[in-house]
TrEMBL record:
This is Tetratricopeptide repeat protein. InterPro entries: NB-ARC (IPR002182), P-loop_NTPase (IPR027417). Residues 79-190 form the NB-ARC domain. SUPFAM superfamilies: P-loop containing nucleoside triphosphate hydrolases (SSF52540). It holds the Pfam family NB-ARC. Gene3D superfamilies: P-loop containing nucleotide triphosphate hydrolases.
Amino acid sequence: MTSASGDRSAAAGGDIGWVNTGDFLTHVDHATLLPPEALAPAECPPGLVHLPGRTGEFVGRRGELAALDAAFATSTGVVVQAVHGLGGIGKSTLAARWAATRMDDHDPVWWIDAETPAALEAGLAALAAAMQPVLAAVLPQEALRERAVQWLSAHDGWLLVLDNVSDPADVRPLLDRARRGRFLITTRRATGWHGIARTLALDVLTLPEAVRLFTGIHRGVRDGVSDLCHELGCLPLAVEQAAAYCVEAGIGPRAYLDLLAGHPAAVLAGIPEGADERRAVARVWRVTLDRLADTPLAGTILRVLAWWDANGIPRAYLAPLGSPPEVTEAVRRLVAHSMITSHADGTLSVHRLVQAVARTADEEDPHRRGELVEEGRETAVDLLARCGENLQAAPPQDRRAWAGHMEALVSSADPATDSEKTAIVLAAAATVMYLFSGRRALALGERASAGLERHQGPDSEARLNLGWLLAMLLRTEDADRATAIVRDTLAGHERAFGADDARTRQARRYATAMLHDMALHKAKNALPAARLGDEAALRTLHQALADAPREVLHDHDGRLIQECLDAGRTDAAIRLAERRAEKLAEREGPTSLLAFGARAALVLIVHVSGRADAARELATALLAECEAVYGADGFTQELRRFLSDPPHIPRTAP
């Protein structure tokens, strides 16, 4: 045993099993003999680098790289830059690329997985161990972390990349102790960085960049690459995994698209060989939704947004889901975690692949169980139905957007699964879309008709009313089919309401006018002799024009106008039509559908009365206004057709 020499000094002997302080003897079961380096300030060897292998395939991002250069250009003090964005958008890849190309300007360059406080501490401890490897086996992790922090606070010129930070509060203590150096943070958190870091929002790749990324992995392929990248929303993670999968499976982009359309759950959950299964597209956002589990409405809203158009979603659509504070908080948290984007115009947007995942059932994912996905779809329909109740007073662009959201909803669902409410809202959307695009209105209307027939029967009033719109949309493109729809719709009225019911009598007038109109088009298409005076074709034309006003006037003023026309009092009919148009413009607004419709009826009445020049002048002015409001398709096609080929009026017309 060794003696202690000095007041309360300790002497170590042999295996240091005993410590003698001069006052008493202490037995020590375990002791650590620290090397001299542990008592001296930490030292970092030059050229110390630790970066992940994420810098291989890299495209685009010139603007973002330049922004990082500018952010770190200042020469004094600590600089903290946070790159935020949706999971899978390439934040870590950008950070790794920038750091790898700037190693000559920083020493050391060290990458830390900072998703949790524990991971951050482990990463700092690893830095200290890399600086002085001899300490790795003798100091606990906490002591190593402290040595790294002390070194960082006392030195300059270093770059620390903190990857995938979940909460700004997790890194705040570290940032507060640093006085010099550079921090580059990647995070899904879009908010909470005020006073902590400068921020840089990362968006998806452009389509040409996404194509370059795909072809850089799947070399030599071209056909279908652009379509696939567009379908994947140019999300880098999805493009990379699709390209790698195509290489491994020996298939092309179009085959992958077919798989994605037919088996979305399996494709979105698939990963290339050797990849981390947590990085599968279908799973990459689950960790974010886990963090939002304490706000259940956030998950509900995301599953609702999954069914609408990805862009231009009014916040007001979500109002019925909860109280204003509840809805606002749920949206705020989704925005904060980069799951959706909020815009200054009051609309929201969501990436199309986030939508695809959110509406794809997975019983192993608590956020995407089958009943939750179906509930999201039905809620999306219900919210659109509520918004549609007050749609007539909305501006035309809002009506078009509303119909577009319904169009997006059904494009992602099997028609056989449409509920009765879905079919009813679809019928309303078809009527609205008719003002803007006949082709899109027809697709909506046909699907609505099938759904109404399945749930309400072939002769339900809603389906019969929709029949007139379908016939209107088809009459110039497929007159035979339109004729069949008109006859079936009229027969349905007679079966459902009887031959003498007012609705049946109105239907009979509609049918007569539309059948004559279609006969005219068939005659003009099939019988060029009509231009040379073919009597049968001309008689069809005359009769169709005589019945035409009956299609467009249904209210009290309309009945008076019709009576005047039937009696040959065309001047009185025109005055009544003018008064009706003025009243509707004053009551509904000059650009409302009802006001435009009344003016279109006036054009037809003036023309039927034999005043072709006056009718053309009215139609020209109305066409210009309609195009300014509704665009060149849909409703305005009727006016354009009238001006390019005005109907012939028989001399014997009243």
